[in-house]
Every structure is written in C-alpha cells, then in structure tokens.
Automatic annotation (TrEMBL):
The lineage of its organism: Bacteria, Pseudomonadati, Pseudomonadota, Gammaproteobacteria, Cellvibrionales. The active site is at H156, K160. It comes from the Bacteria. It catalyses: (S)-2,3,4,5-tetrahydrodipicolinate + NAD(+) + H2O = (2S,4S)-4-hydroxy-2,3,4,5-tetrahydrodipicolinate + NADH + H(+); (S)-2,3,4,5-tetrahydrodipicolinate + NADP(+) + H2O = (2S,4S)-4-hydroxy-2,3,4,5-tetrahydrodipicolinate + NADPH + H(+). This is 4-hydroxy-tetrahydrodipicolinate reductase.
Amino acid sequence: MTVRLAVTGAGGRMGKMLIEAIAAAPGVELTAAIERAGSSLIGADAGELAGIGKNGVAVVSDLHEVVEDFDVLIDFTVPAATVENARICADAHKKIVIGTTGFNEDQKAYLLEAKDATAMCMSANYSSGVNLCFKLLESAAKILGDDYDVEVYEAHHRHKIDAPSGTALRMGEVLACALGRDLGKVAVYGREGQTGARERDTIGFATVRGGDVVGDHTVMFMADGERVEISHKASSRMSFARGAVRAAAWIKSKEVGLFDMQDVLSLR
Ligand SMILES: NC(=O)C1=CN([C@@H]2O[C@H](COP(=O)(O)OP(=O)(O)OC[C@H]3O[C@@H](n4cnc5c(N)ncnc54)[C@H](OP(=O)(O)O)[C@@H]3O)[C@@H](O)[C@H]2O)C=CC1
Ligand SMILES: O=C(O)C1=N[C@H](C(=O)O)C[C@H](O)C1
C-alpha cells in the first residue's frame, strides 16, 4: 500500500528537495505540505514550489489541519518547530522522520519521551555515505585507539544556523564511544589564544561556514609519522532527501520507538 507522506518546512532547502524525492520514489506519495504560519507560500502548489510541476497538494500553515491525511511526517525545519510537530504526531499516533539538527538538551529529552507514543526516526544525516562513514569511524577508532589524535572538521553553506553540524557531533559521539571516552568531557569546540599543548584524550571540532557548501565532513586520526582521514563530501541535498524518504517508508511499519538511519540501512 502506498505510504502517505507530509513535509513540514516545505519551502525550505530540504523541504523542496524532499517533495522532489517523494515524487521520484516508488510506493510513497506526498499528501500534505506545511509551511510556517504567515509564510507567503501558504496556498501554493507544493509541486510547483519544488520546481517539478503541479501535484495538487496545497501548502497549509497548520499541521493539525492535515494530520489525518498522512502516515509519516518528514520534518527538516528548526528545533522549536520540530518539537511541536513531534508532539502533534505523537498525540495523533503518526510516525515522524526528523532531520533537523541543533537541539538543546531539553528538546532532546522531550523527543526521547515522544518515542513511547509513536515511531520516530532521528538522524543528523540521512545520506548512505555518511552512515557508512559512521561505521568506518567506529572501526578506525577501535583499531587505531589512543595512540592517534582525533579531530573532526566540517564545512557548510553560509545559511546554516547551528554549529558544529549535527553530523560532526554524531561523528564525535561515535568516536568517543569507540574510544571509551565521554564526549561531554573531552570535546573541544574550536581553539584560540594560548591553548597549551593538545591534551591527549580530547576530540576537537573545527567549523567552516561559507558559500553554497552542501556539507563536508572529515575526521583525522593523527599520529607521529602518519595521518588517516575519513571524508564525506555531499554535492547535492538529494542524497539526504532520498535517505529520509527511504526512512519514512521503512518506519511506516513500526509502532513505537526511536530509530535512526543505521537501523533503516541495517548497519547496526
Ligand atoms: N539530517 C539530515 O540529513 C539533514 C539535516 N538538515 C537539517 O535540516 C534543517 C533544515 O535545513 P534547511 O532545509 O537547509 O533549512 P531552511 O532554512 O532552508 O528550511 C527550514 C524550513 O523550516 C521553516 N521554519 C523555520 N522556522 C520555523 C518555525 N518556527 N515553524 C515552522 N517552520 C519553520 C522555514 O520557513 P521560513 O523559510 O519561512 O523561515 C523553512 O521552510 C536544519 O536543521 C539542517 O541542519 C539539512 C540537511 C540534511
Ligand atoms: O544544514 C545543513 O545543510 C546540513 N545539516 C546537517 C548537519 O547539521 O549535520 C546535515 C548536512 O551536513 C547538511
């Protein structure tokens, strides 16, 4: 049976890409598109908005209005909006795929609670390539161990509002877990001034913002005499959108619980 999908943030960079990806994927259809109240896009045709021609789905401003019209919501917006949308989905027992990054601790705790009421998939990155990198990083960290200094670099477009990227932070978590460290204690978010020599167990993060960079991530494992780098470079948001649509089709059959793209790709 066709899985009915809704997209919040329909006019955003990822929203438009998701509408296009849904139109191209088998077994799914777009049945609702939502933008923020007051947006000039309310009432527009979602297909036209995404540049793929009319699809007959009008953009609305209130998720409640269309909550019975879809099976799974795909949400790539901002943290406050995602938390509110997750609450509405949990109350209505609708599944949700979350791509938004930059949540604070309270927002994360709230989302963790919502998993008891519905099935949620939450990933900082829905591309298959990045999810492969998470596995490679785990292996590399276990094999290279404490003899190598580990640092995470990321670059994104000038419009990105959170830093480090959700993907970089997830990479940090994967590395810390594989190395038996607590990321909260060992993370260093940028360096400036008289920092002193690098402390052995730290995991550093470096952030670059500018232009139209879709998303670059590199983890460096550095020792005396050699360096290993594991890199991913996204050149189109379609890689994220296809993954999120795949996750939405996958999560339709789940009842409750919190999942991520590693579950969808059977990488656990
Ligand atoms: N997990 C993954 O694979 C990926 C995650 N992301 C994440 O997805 C999120 C969105 O990225 P991107 O599409 O580039 O961002 P955009 O700014 O292009 O899109 C965000 C959308 O959310 C809407 N929005 C903003 N504030 C609110 C609000 N308060 N209530 C309802 N809607 C709101 C915006 O509307 P308006 O324009 O009117 O403000 C816009 O349509 C980011 O957190 C980003 O990090 C991005 C790519 C991949
Ligand atoms: O904001 C973006 O653009 C992206 N955000 C995600 C993140 O924060 O990791 C994923 C991707 O790199 C693009």
